[in-house]
Write the structure tokens for this entry.
Amino acid sequence: MVARLEREVALAPGPVRDALLALPREVLIPQAYVRRSAPDETPRRWDLLDWSKPGDRDELLRLLYSGESVPIQHDGEPILSRIPGPRSGGAITAMSSVAGMTADLLHQLGLGRGQRVLDVGTGAGVTASVACFVCGHDGVVTVDIDRHVSEAARARLAALGYRPVVATGDGTAGWPAQVPYDRIFISFAVPRVPPALMSQLAPNGRALMTLGTSSPSWPGLAVVTRSESGVVEGELIAVEFGHRGGWGFDRLFLSREFRDQITTSPGDWTRRSRLEPPADTARGMWLALDHFFPGLVRHFGADHLTIGAPECGSWMRVCPADSGRWDVTGAGPRDVWAELQDVAGRWQAAGSPHTYRLEIDADGTQRVTTSCGALSWPIPAPCRDHGDIR
């Protein structure tokens, strides 16, 4: 797995690589789920594989070292002392993230010996184990909202010889008992930078987290630092992949029926345009689109650019026509193509940025802007009616 990540340039030489190379994942994750149902099949079906069963070991090893995400909990169940076998219905409620993304983010975090680290969202404990290996477990705190996840991680980290503080609680509130932290890492998407975590960040400290909306299509990586004098600064980087939303995070998705509709329906209108759709690599534009015109989800499985707004039923697809022109078909109350071109024009006028400045004021105000201020948007405070994002 490590060699494959190195070939894919997702893992650079250094302490994170050494930690992953030394980590026996079957000790940290002796049980994991493998999905047996088709993508759109309901109810969903899984099998819980167990390292103690010789017949499960080959498949479990392939899963653990595939580099893909590994489901570890179903419907909030207790994790220790589970009986392996099939499960039906419900949902996966905890998992270990994709190895390449985790490795890249931990490399960017800049872990070093003796640092105090706060790991928010314990999951399978992979991030905590890397932090213990690199920094020493005495300075590591890992927090998860689910006590079953915390209990399992505590036992399995101990089996590796690591004894960090493993706590249960709202990770966005941090863990005041061990402040300040030199490094803070959140392993789930949040809608804004949690103010409590910034107050717990040490001078010269760094925090990383995925900033996302209800759409899974266009995440941003927030990199926040505190200077020696205490000034908090940040940047928001448009990225291809990010962490999923945490507990309580409303997440839009395109149902199978809606996907079929937007790829086959004649729509309400079709127009021919000489404007070329923005490239997939124009991630700074897509990130801005997600904030200026929220509620859109990209259908990445379609042959051509296809976007839907599941809350109102609007959609748009773009297909190449002839002589550098494009056929744009749409339906619903929103003109998604017009929204797209509006943001694309503003993004280009601002210099086509890939990275934005993330302003975090002492009063809780947060704003994303370009260095010249030509393109900017606020990050709203959470709505109390929808609960806390954890």
Remarks:
- The domain at 256-349 is CATH 3.30.310 (TATA-Binding Protein).
- The two ends are 30 Å apart (CA to CA).
- Residues 384-390 have pLDDT under 50 and may be disordered.
